[in-house]
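Input structure tokens:
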């Protein structure tokens, strides 16, 4: 099975890294990880730390912020990854770096 030819390559890459976390990567897999990380603006070093890459790739996938509500009134939002407060002008969480998807809030 080719892990990198899927509809959502980031999810498959993360799943693949998690499966082989305690095994050595062959050079082809390591090359694909480096390539995908670089394409998503994640700078890699010679010695790759796969947990850091999994975290960085996970943060690169946009997620919708969680609305903070009281009596059906939204008074703010929190990061879906770390639950810290985020502003509607934030593209990324200032605490953990998670990419935020505001599409529903700005469209609606």
């Amino acid at each position: 099975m080719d892990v990198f030819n899927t509809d959502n390559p980031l999810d498959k890459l993360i799943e693949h890294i998690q499966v082989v976390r305690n095994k050595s990567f062959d050079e082809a897999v390591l090359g694909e990880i480096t390539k995908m990380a670089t394409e998503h603006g994640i700078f890699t070093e010679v010695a790759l730390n796969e947990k850091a890459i999994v975290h960085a790739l996970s943060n690169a996938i946009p997620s919708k912020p969680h609305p903070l509500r009281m009596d059906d009134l939204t008074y703010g939002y929190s990061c879906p990854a770390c639950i810290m407060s985020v502003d509607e002008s934030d593209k990324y969480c200032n605490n953990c770096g998670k990419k935020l998807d505001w599409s529903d809030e700005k469209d609606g």
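Strands lie at 66-70, 73-78, 85-86. DSSP finds four helices and three strands in the chain.
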